[in-house]
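Protocol step 4 of 5: obtain the predicted structure for the target chain.
Materials: sequence only (see below). No template structures provided, no constraints applied. The aim of this step is simply to have a reference model before the mutagenesis design in step 5. Sequence pasted as it appears in the construct record:
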Amino acid sequence: MHAAALHSARSEDTGSTAVAQSIEALGRRICEALPPLRLHSVSICDIQCNVLWLSEGALGPDEHALVTDALERFGRAGESFEARVEDGRVAVFLAVRAARSELAGLVMVLADTKAGGEGLLGRIATGPVQALIRDLGAAIPHAPARRLDHDPTGMLLSLADDAPPAEPTPAPPVAARVLAPAAVDELLVHGALSLELEPPAGTSASKGSDAASKPAPNPPPEPPVLQPPAAAAAPDATVETVALEVMPFVKLRSGGRMRRFEVLPRGTPRQNRDPAALDALAMHSLLAWMAAHRADWTLEPTAFTLNLSIATLEDEQFLRQLSAGFSRSGISPESVGFEIAEPLCTQRRASVERFINGCERLGCFVVIDGFTFDSAVVPLLRSKAVRLVKIDPRLCTAALKDKLAQAVVVAIVQAVKVLGIHCAAQQIETQQVLRWLTAVGCDFGQGSMLARPLPIARLQGSAGAPGAASPSADESR
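Step 4 output (structure tokens):
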């Protein structure tokens, strides 16, 4: 990242930290100003139902529904009210308004019913508490309502599959050298990651015939070599490729500039028969695209992740050849990560640990997919290479009905936050699940209601940044 951009990102994070500390201090002062109560919790939320501060515990789906209803009520009128909860609690809601009486959020006080009775609202909404509420109105940052047509990825993603291009121009030449057909066959049949490349355009056929007439010792397998964008492969070469799609990690919380995309290779039936070969082809295609389209992903900090098979995790040559590919293409390893399913972390522990250690040395990052807080997997979170966990979607779906699943999800979100690791939820299909995950502090989400996979060629760079950037230090975890 440029020095100015890095300074700006750090300044934004410093400002966000100061705001959070100010809100926390006001929340604690509100707790001190309350009368003696059998208090369950005091929470501060913004108008998007994000929990900015919570005195203790965690807000479950029921409590989140109370906040949602209260915000809708305050949006029409009112400053405070109380409501009985079915489980023997009483909730008091105090509207937080910014300048010009605009609603900025609310404070929810949950207490035992025995502490209630007539006049509870009057006992809570005292002068000192109201003064602190006014201070909160100035401290809570403005959070406009989420628009349905808003692009949460921060990139311009075309969702119209049948939309014709603005200007029908011929496709540009391939910017990277490609695998020779013979090498692809060898890769698919033998599983060897030799990745032999086609000769560059312009190589004379006579040289090939001379080489055939004079046998030479077989050189060691070459790692993938990416040519500068000016070079092009031979136009008449038959090239086997793998189609790449990307699924965005949609931000559920504000803050940070990093954009993340999961790469989904769409192989042919022949390619899909060998997962290791498909991984190699996908990685080659991804690096080739990144080298040829730098402006489409370097204008803002961007990272791509690829889910790997166990055969690739056990291949000790994979990271070595990947390192050579990074060096020759000039691509930062911090821009590429690998997703490892949690069952593989327990079934192939030695191979997974070796791979994670290799990623840490190389500079790539690792994502634990389908994370359930398995005690055998938790120690892997010590590695600096592990920067994101994807919560098992079954836990997120069950959390709305099952208290244990709800507790596990909240525990995952809080635990990885302490470690400086991001968390993402998968297969989000309903607004109810989305709102609750946002309320408990989940960082990213994936699902059909948020975004759908798109061909990687349709990613367009943001026009807001002046030049290339790499992942910021503040997003390094």
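Step 4 remarks: The longest strand covers residues 103-112. Residues 91 and 110 are 5 Å apart (CA to CA).
Proceed to step 5.
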